[in-house]
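Box 3.1 A note on notation
Throughout this textbook, protein chains are presented in two layers. The first layer is the amino acid sequence; the second is a token string describing backbone geometry. Keep the layers aligned when reading.
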Amino acid sequence: MKVINIHKRKSIRLKGYDYSQAGFYFVTICVKNRECLFGNIVDANPCGCPNICPEMKLNHAGKMVENEWLKLPERFQNIQLHEYIVMPNHFHAILEIVGATLVVAQNDVVMNNRAITRVAPTGRTLGEMMGAFQSITSVEYIHGVKNKNWQPFNKKLWHRNYWEHIIRNDNEHNRIVQYIIKNPLKWDNDKLNGGNGNMVMENPAEYNYENWMI
């Protein structure tokens, strides 16, 4: 009898957590095979100072991704968009499902050492929102390949999974905002660019791309 080995994907979502629940979420999605399709990191001097700083220069595909992200609240009216950045081969953003507070209440539920505030669900999950964004941008990118000579991709534009972190307090929020803003400065050391580091959080396990890009 032939034995078939079935690869079981390990869930990277917080077990038991309601992802339609109001809150602040830090999300990352990556281009399949980490291909750089959305532009390049270039040396720039936007402020006129003597220092040359790397910054992200979007191509037409990257601008499309940015535009579709900014249009997401038209599809999901219970969300607000905060800091974000389109990088050459991935995308970072903070998304808020409205009705949340960054203050962790004393009667929070604690699951896997992470505090989760009890609030009313909003009905649409983070997964639905990210899935819609990935689907819309994939369709638009295919249109660009066919009609605008954009760089082709192999089968899928995005990696099927995405990474998320539930933002629990102001300190985390501020640290993640700074991470997003400074992402182009640290591109040479970014793991998604073949580097060794550029972690989001203090705990390396919080952003281990090997676990969610299987």
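Residues 23-212 form a domain with the Alpha-Beta Plaits fold (CATH 3.30.70.1290). The chain has a mean pLDDT of 78.
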